[in-house]
């Protein structure tokens, strides 16, 4: 049988396709070694990423590592200014796209199997990078990061847990050998393919960015006892330090936005917040079908929003009480109070019922009822809702996190109202639930609630409402569906 050139080419193509299909089918985790092109040649590329444009030690650090010898790359958004004289062989790669030039893909410039992220102001030690690489490769199976201190201050080992659903990174003192992050200036070494498999391989500050992404992947970290020396440098000028602090802060803000972190809980118990405030807009847009956008993204209410909602609820309850307006926890807020004494962790507002006849007793409510939104002395904005006969108190004019106030009035022993939004829990109820109202812990204060909250909730949400949590609109998204 004769095989034509065409047939042979076709056959070859089919075999190649089958092979490729096999590799893809095995998936990235399970791909057999024969399918994976070994990434890079043995060796360690030194990457200088964390440095300032001004008063830096870039030339000295680059010269020291280039003399090892090791390939050294300097990666910056734009060329440092004033220009830094880099030693021969050290390449400067500019990451910010420029309209009339081809884009720079840093990973195409790293040819070695390992890469070391070296902070500005570090001096090389012959053999130490290789020892870090060996520690990484010989460590337990999940070891993906080796870390060595720079200078004489030892690194502080921290445990790091990242809870994406709660938008939170939580640090606590770690036991030596079980760190998820370290505090202090450090060189980080990892496999090149691991670094460039991260969504933010070059985000700054480098250590924070790498530790958080590593924690999300369960990567282990080895801390080296040996340190890289730090050179004696002229003291940074006060203005230089001020600039560096400003830039560091705005980089950290950007990084946390990228990583979806709105709260860092520090090892000493302190907190850093990156979410919304009175001056900013709310973290999430208008809620459609009772399902806020964060729920669709597999997350719960951002902690900054929960904090602002608690503050607004407490403020409103205080104002109503002071004015003698009878109010009570309604709907999801009562449900949260019954379940955990707090706002439900995925809820987006707070609901209170009020006696309609009491509206005139509170000056802010009365002003809102007259038609004009009014900002009270503490910056909360009271207004009549456009959607119907109810009131809203916003956290601020810019941040529209709010407490809804639903006016009810008694009719033949039944509490009713004029605006119904068609929610299942939006129903009339016997006034006896409010005779008397009872105090109940909620969101960090004591709120007033219907007596027999369980019966009230089961009337509104159906039996088992307290015991069986569910998202507000299970037709759109159910709890446990992520
Ligand atoms: Zn927020
Ligand atoms: Mg609600």
Q: TL;DR?
A:
The protein is α/β, with parallel strands linked by helices and 482 residues long. It contains 11 helices and 22 strands.
Explain how this protein is built.
It is a single chain. The protein is of the alpha/beta class. The protein folds into two domains: 25-223, Alpha-Beta Complex (Spore Coat Polysaccharide Biosynthesis Protein SpsA, Chain A); 293-461, 2-Layer Sandwich (Beta Polymerase, domain 2), CATH 3.30.460. It contains eleven helices and 22 strands. The chain has helices spanning 5-30, 58-66, 128-138, 192-195, 206-217, 238-259, 293-296, 303-323, 331-340, 363-369, 453-461; strands spanning 41-48, 72-76, 91-94, 112-118, 143-149, 156-163, 168-173, 181-183, 186-191, 220-223, 263-265, 271-273, 327-329, 350-355, 374-375, 381-384, 391-394, 402-411, 414-416, 429-430, 437-442, 445-450. Strands 13, 14, 15, 16, 17, 18, 19 and 20 form an eight-stranded mixed sheet that branches. Strands 3-2-1-4-9-5-10 form a seven-stranded mixed sheet, sandwiched between helices. Strand 11 and strand 12 form a beta hairpin. Helix 9 (331-340) crosses helix 11 (453-461). The longest helix has 26 residues, at 5-30. It is elongated. Mean pLDDT is 92; it is low at 26-38. It binds zinc ion and magnesium ion (MG). Magnesium ion (MG) binds at residues 331-332, 347, 349, 351.
């Amino acid at each position: 049988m004769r095989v034509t050139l065409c047939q042979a080419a076709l056959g070859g193509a089919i075999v190649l396709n089958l092979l490729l299909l096999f590799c893809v089918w095995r998936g990235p985790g399970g791909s057999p070694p024969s399918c994976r092109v070994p990434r890079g040649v043995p060796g360690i590329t030194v990457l200088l990423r964390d440095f300032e444009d001004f008063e830096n030690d870039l030339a000295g650090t680059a010269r020291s590592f280039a003399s090892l010898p090791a390939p050294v790359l300097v990666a910056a958004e734009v060329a440092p200014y004033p220009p830094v004289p880099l030693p021969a062989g050290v390449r400067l790669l500019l990451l910010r796209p420029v309209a009339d030039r081809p884009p720079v893909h840093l990973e195409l410039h790293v040819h070695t199997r390992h890469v070391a992220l070296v902070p500005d102001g570090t001096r090389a030690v012959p053999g130490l990078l290789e020892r870090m690489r060996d520690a990484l490769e010989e460590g337990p199976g999940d070891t993906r990061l080796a870390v060595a201190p720079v200078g004489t201050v030892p690194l502080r080992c921290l445990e790091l847990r990242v809870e994406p659903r709660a938008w939170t990174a939580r640090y606590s003192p770690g036991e030596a050998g079980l760190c998820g992050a370290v505090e202090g200036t450090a060189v980080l070494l990892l496999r090149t393919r691991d670094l460039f498999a991260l969504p933010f391989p070059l985000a700054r500050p480098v250590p924070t960015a790498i530790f958080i992404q590593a924690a999300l992947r369960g990567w282990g970290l080895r801390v080296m006892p040996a340190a890289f020396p730090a050179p004696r440098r002229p003291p940074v000028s006060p203005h230089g330090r001020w600039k560096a602090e400003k830039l560091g802060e705005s980089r950290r803000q950007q990084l946390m936005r990228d990583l979806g972190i709105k709260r860092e809980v520090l090892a000493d118990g302190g907190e850093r917040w990156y979410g919304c405030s009175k001056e900013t807009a709310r973290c999430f847009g208008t809620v459609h079908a009772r399902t806020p956008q964060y729920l669709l993204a597999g997350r719960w209410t951002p902690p900054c929003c929960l904090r602002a909602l608690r503050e607004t609820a407490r403020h409103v309850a205080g104002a109503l009480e002071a004015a003698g307006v009878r109010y009570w926890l309604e709907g999801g807020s009562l449900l949260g109070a019954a379940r955990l004494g707090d706002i439900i962790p995925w809820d987006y507002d707070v609901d209170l019922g009020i006696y309609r006849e009491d509206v005139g007793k509170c000056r802010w409510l009365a002003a809102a009822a007259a038609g004009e939104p009014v900002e009270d002395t503490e910056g909360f904005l009271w207004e009549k809702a456009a959607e119907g006969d109810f009131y809203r108190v916003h956290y601020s004019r810019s941040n529209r996190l709010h407490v809804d106030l639903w006016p009810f009035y008694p009719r033949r022993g039944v509490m009713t109202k004029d605006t119904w939004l068609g929610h299942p829990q939006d129903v009339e109820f016997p006034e006896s639930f409010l005779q008397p109202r009872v105090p109940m812990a909620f969101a960090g204060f004591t709120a007033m609630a219907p007596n027999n909250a369980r019966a009230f909730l089961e009337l509104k949400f159906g039996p088992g409402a307290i015991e069986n949590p569910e998202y507000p609109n299970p037709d759109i998204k159910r709890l446990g569906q992520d």
